[in-house]
Specification:
This protein is of the alpha/beta class. 49% of the residues lie in helices and 10% in strands.
Length: 476
């Protein structure tokens, strides 16, 4: 199976290619329909808006005290026997983890699911140092076998159907070609079991880091996270600095929002609370636990009063599942670690806006992402801001953002903006536009390069409704 390299600079070409692939569209459409239905049903007996408000307030409170909470987290983790390391960027985080592995003579690492490790390209870094890094999450394992990156932050292999998975496992591991999902799952479990037992180091992500108690919370469904964090003699947890929460009591509401928003489950199969290494007299668990806190541009985001909201994210993927763009082009089209709406507002501040300037345009601004976000991140507002920054003053928002706007175009948009904020003038302009509709030009500069020119209706919807009501009153 051929493997492609994707980059955010080529978003439009990659999206076009994905739209032309009926298999990708079918795979995503079927998966997203199921996820949206499950989310809707699982929240049916809940006061969802109150829970979302609570989740947003918990995250905002934690972010408001982020520097203090990080220091508290470090102190309590160290008191629990967890050694804390700070990394300014992904490169430094990779170096810290590599040096920890080398200090123990490690030759093999087993990894639980961690988007931060994907973000910093940890696997490639370890392999360059002669250390094997194997993904243990089933979806991550499949995309690793296929030499791909995840296409979704919760379900990494969502772009693959059963036949494609069967082909990958047959070609890479020698299993039989089959459509029996239970057989393939059992085969993957058997392949991974020995690797868990023999791994020198286990690496995991963190869903919530509790400052109050120095506890690392890990949410998962397969048990691979529990194996990764308990079987190898050394456990290294890696996470972004924004994952800290203030109190242990803050975790249940966020957990309820995360599981229901991500996979439509009331609870996940496993919820792990890691508070330290194996203690004297205990027979299992790692001898050492390390926590690597990664910045990678998060401090810059934190200093912006608007973009700060991006750091609320609990990585549920709900915005992707409901996004009409993501569900049609898939995650690889974005060419970034975090795809979809959340990636479009997060990645520009990790990779730079010049590298990712097309991503904020990957939205219809329908608002679905903001409506389903469990912690109420105003994603559409942030997308509009990034579009404005990406195109710059005096530039149009066509793909590539390199087309100079003419004086007429600038004047036209300023006129539209003024009319749209003055109701009486707007109604008068609509009336006049209807009378002069025959004079509407078919070309409006670069704007109509990708759009059909608008032609005013003879009568506005409001006028038609009023006329219909008057007719009904006269008949009565």
């Amino acid at each position: 199976m051929s493997v492609e390299t994707y980059t955010p600079r080529a978003f439009h070409r990659q999206a076009h290619d994905a739209l032309g692939n009926p298999q990708i569209r079918s795979n995503f459409r079927r998966a997203m329909d199921g996820l949206m239905t499950k989310r809707r049903d699982v929240f049916s007996d809940w006061d969802l808006e109150t829970l979302r408000e609570l989740g947003a307030n918990i995250r905002l409170r934690a972010l408001a005290r982020l520097p203090d909470l990080l220091e508290q987290l470090e102190a309590n983790c160290e008191a629990n026997g967890i050694r804390v390391h700070w990394a300014e960027d992904g490169e430094e985080a990779c170096r810290i983890i590599r040096e920890l592995c080398e200090s123990h003579g490690a030759k093999s690492v087993i990894k639980g699911k961690s988007m931060v490790s994907e973000e910093m390209h940890l696997n490639a870094h370890l392999e360059a140092a002669g250390i094997e890094a194997l993904e243990s999450d089933l979806g991550e394992y499949l995309v690793q076998l296929n030499e791909q990156t995840p296409s979704h932050i919760i379900m990494p292999a969502i772009h693959l159907n059963t036949d494609e998975i069967s082909d990958i496992m047959h070609e890479k591991t020698g299993t039989e070609r089959t459509r029996d999902v239970d057989y393939m799952t059992a085969a993957a479990r058997a392949q991974l079991r020995e690797r868990f037992m023999n791994a020198d180091v286990g690496v995991s992500g963190v869903n919530f880091a509790v400052a109050e108690t120095g506890t690392l919370c890990l949410v998962e469904n397969e048990g691979n996270g529990r194996m990764t964090t308990t079987v190898p003699p050394v456990h290294i947890a890696v996470t972004g600095i924004e994952k800290v929460v203030e109190h242990l009591r803050d975790v249940p509401p966020l957990y309820a929002l995360l599981t229901r928003s991500a996979t439509g489950q009331h609870v996940t199969t496993y919820f792990n609370m890691i508070s330290g290494p194996r203690k004297a007299g205990e027979h299992d668990g790692p001898r050492e636990v390390h926590l690597v806190l990664v910045d990678s541009g998060r401090s810059r985001i934190y200093q912006d009063n608007e973009l700060l909201d991006t750091l609320r994210c609990i990585r549920c993927g709900a915005c992707m599942n409901h996004c009409p763009v993501y569900t049609r082009v898939g995650g690889h089209s974005y060419g970034t670690t975090y795809p979809g709406p959340i990636g479009s507002i997060l990645m520009p501040h990790m990779l730079g806006l010049e590298e990712t300037k097309d991503l904020p345009t990957a939205s219809s601004l329908c608002g679905a992402c903001g409506e389903v976000c469990p912690v109420k991140i105003p994603i559409p507002d942030l997308l509009v801001r990034l579009r404005r920054e990406a195109v710059g003053e005096g530039r149009g928002n066509v793909p590539g953002a390199g087309v100079k706007r003419t004086k007429k175009e600038v004047a036209a948009w300023k006129t539209w903006q003024w009319l749209a904020t003055h109701p009486s003038a707007w109604r008068g302009s609509l009336l006049m536009a209807g009378k002069l509709r025959a004079l509407t030009p078919s070309r409006l500069g670069p704007w109509t390069q990708y759009r059909t020119a608008l032609k005013p209706a003879k009568r506005s919807l409001h006028a038609l409704v009023k006329s219909h009501r008057r007719a009904g009153e006269d008949e009565s």
